[in-house]
Specification:
seven-stranded parallel β-sheet, 17 strands, globular
Length: about 375
């Protein structure tokens, strides 16, 4: 079996020869640290991206089989994006910068965390009509100008990528990224503004959600109608934190749920029975909403301080609920004994079926190269 066949067999409760050893990429700071230590080159550290040729090489060096986030990413976002530029610079070296989402964010020297948001371009109907709605209209170029990972190179969809995807000849699972139905909206508005907008202008709030949902559906349909073949569908959200969702689950079910349902029914009609979703944080209150609307594979199942696990969800929702993730990446900063203990913890979860262990987020800067290699080796021996 190849890794594509293995992964799909696990998630479909079919027989497989061994568990694939999967990861979810790296923080930029991690790659820079590994480059300084001589494990990879500076060029690799600066040019890595999910699923690109550099990712394939680093994956091989560490001993992983593939990056689960290997997907075709048609453009479901702002087109064109805002032009990033410097807004202000301060004596301590910090800067206010306009990013591609139209947000002014704080950049601090040597800071490794997500930049704090200072202001948002999207704040009312006027800014929506002038700056965002025109950028969220469908065009075929959203699909044809996207890039496809073809083995050891990246090619554009309309310059050989489509032909490659039509053949479907690859040895790792390759997903169709169907966009974000609320996470990007939260990014554009900010948490506080998105919360107020639901009450201050519910019609605008609905229009934004419906516009984004319609665009994601149109782009997904265009990718599927092209004849390209994918192994799973995938969404991104990141709308939870350590205590729970950043949106009221009742609102999410009512306003966002139908868009999920429409898109998952579309991908199902093309034979894509695995639909995964990337959301960090404690997602328990949103899992039933995603599940009832066609999302059946949770990722990356952050262990966190809340001890997320597929086991509790399986008890509630049955074998239809799958998972990729749930391996506590923090052990990579410790020693071999900690890694052995984590793999032992994963054993009963693997026995449930329909579950592929994967580090529960990007590998952090304190992850030791030799520990990650040891983990990959032990995973093969344990679940071979």
């Amino acid at each position: 079996m190849n890794n594509r066949e293995r992964a799909l067999a696990v998630l479909r409760y079919q027989e497989y020869d061994r568990m694939p050893v999967v990861h979810f990429g790296f923080w930029d700071e991690t790659l820079l640290a590994w480059a300084q230590q001589g494990h990879i080159t500076e060029t690799q550290a600066h040019t890595w991206a999910d699923g690109n040729p550099v990712d394939v090489e680093i994956t091989r060096l560490l001993g992983f089989d593939f990056n689960w986030y290997s997907c075709f990413h048609p453009n479901t976002g702002l087109r064109p994006p805002f032009e990033p530029h410097l807004v202000a610079e301060f004596p301590d070296g910090s800067q206010h910068v306009m990013n591609a989402d139209g947000n002014i964010v704080l950049h601090r020297p040597e800071a490794g965390s997500i930049p704090a948001e200072i202001a948002h371009t999207l704040k009312d109907r006027a800014s929506w009509e002038a700056e965002f709605k025109p950028r969220l209209q469908f065009a075929p170029e959203r699909v044809t100008e996207a890039w496809v990972n073809v083995g050891q190179e990246m090619v554009r969809f309309d310059q050989g990528g489509l032909e490659y995807l039509q053949k479907g000849e690859r040895d790792i699972p390759y997903g169709l990224h169907c966009g974000s139905l609320y996470g990007k909206i939260r990014d554009w508005l900010g948490l506080v503004n998105s919360s107020y907008l639901q009450v201050d202008d519910p019609e605008l709030f609905d229009e934004i959600i419906d516009t984004v949902g319609t665009l994601c559906y149109q782009v997904t349909r265009a990718a599927l109608e092209s004849g390209a073949k994918f192994d799973f569908a995938h969404f991104w959200e990141d709308i939870c934190f350590r205590e729970g969702p950043l949106i009221n689950p009742r609102v999410f079910r009512q306003k966002v749920g139908p868009h999920y349902k429409r898109i998952t029914e579309l991908v199902n009609s093309y034979g894509l029975d695995i639909v995964s979703l990337d959301c960090d944080g404690k997602i328990d209150d949103l899992v039933p909403i995603w599940f009832e609307n066609g999302v059946n594979t949770m990722f990356p199942i952050e262990v966190g301080v809340w001890n997320a696990s597929i086991a509790s969800w399986r008890e509630k929702y049955g074998r239809g609920l799958r998972g990729v993730g749930g391996m506590d990446k923090r052990v990579f900063a410790y020693d071999y004994a900690a890694i052995d203990a984590e793999i032992e913890r994963l054993k009963p979860l693997v026995e449930l079926g329909g579950y592929i262990p994967c580090p529960d987020h990007r590998l952090p800067p304190n992850a030791k190269w030799e520990n990650v290699q040891y983990y990959c080796e032990r995973m093969r021996k344990t679940f071979g």
